[in-house]
Amino acid sequence: MVGHYVAEYNALIKRLETLGVDENPDGIFKYLFGRESKFIAVMMQRLDLTHEECYQFLATTYFAAEFGETPKHLEDHRYINYNPYMNTQKLNEIWKKISVAGKDGSNEKLWKEIQDAFNKSLKDLFLAENFRPKVMRIALDDDKVHFHMSTAAMRKDGEYLCGMRACQHVKSNVRGFTIDTAVSSATGFPLNVSVLRGGETNTENYDRMLRDMFEHKFSRQETQHAALAGVIFCSDRGYWVAPLILLILSLGGTVFGTVKRTWWVPYTYDQKNPNGRQMIHGKFGRSCFLAFSRWRRNMLKIMAWRSGTGGVALTMNSDNLGHTEPTTMDFCFANYADGKWYKSPTITQEERNLKAFQREIEITPHSEEAAKQISDHLIHISSNKVKMLTVADLDFAWFTLRMFAWTSSSSYASLRYAAPMVPQDDPIRDTLMNVLDYAGLSRLLSEGGDSGTGTGEDEDTSENEIESEVMTSEFVKSTLKSMFSYQGNSDEIAEISRK
Description:
alpha/beta
């Protein structure tokens, strides 16, 4: 994947050299929005504006959008320096020109002409036929644009939105319209934008965008089935609907990303009625479930990943039978630095094992010697004398092995139960006290206990319960003695561990 990104970046640099564009953000900005750009040329011609007025209009609009306020409020605010921006009167005059531009049928709608000009610049810069990398990744997205439209005006004027599709943005609970975008995953630059039009779906809009972006690939009908070969479409779970997936696959593209729980996905989780789908329960250990479906020349794969901590994720990718190499999923560490260190090729497996077992120990005058002994012991454990079966928590091996192991949870539960039963005159009490003090668990020891029958029991305890209590206490005492009375060196401890 990194190799694909590098190839896209190198292709862009080569294209910038060919066009004579400076290889920096300012150079790209001037090409897309500069005085000689197609975008600015349309605005100057259709709205009768100078180059400076176009810039000031755009700067004022984005400035107001960033604050979420009207330009009038910002202009009147006593703490905001509004001098570089366009005054409200001039701004409103331009918006009035925009609202009627092309509505009389004499010209194309202004937004369509600006959109076409911008997309032509993007195609020349990022998707030129001889400069496009062999494999590229594109993210599909939809940008919600807020617009305080008038319902009365829309009923009165059928061309109020100039052909754009009005919608109610659910998450932000505001009205507006939608601009679908295709963005390069490598550079983050937009490759194509298209306003969602009235009476069409997002899939139909994406279809028009793809045919515009790779126009040269659709010139012949017999090769359209492979027009998107080498293009991997990566999107989040909210954008993958069945019609869009089939569209991309039918044109030879590859789909890749997470998916929502829906009727065509064979797995589900946290739902009362699976409707024939396999239910993945999150409470069990780490597992991976795979389902395959062949459609024409494509193999679509759905994966359900159970994390082992209660979470389930659904992902999807496809193979286009030789046109692109299979895409793969990778898992991120909670801490980026840990993941970068662990995957470094310069780190030996022994170092990985040691890091997996070690933790930072707070050194105090009382714990310095104990910390040294623990460190020495871990060094021996990480050697070849002991075979590591797993170095990670919550994987399948961990869930299996913990059923036979003396884990931290079980040892803590045993100490919490047994510590109050150890009398003060017992030979193991001092050793136990040092261990609990080092672990910060000295509160588990009973204060002033003088017998092994424990404290806190009711006075009228039955004879059988007392006998059971004594037997339990004797068993615990013998176990603790074997745990804390051994005084061996690190080599002997490692040898015992190996056996």
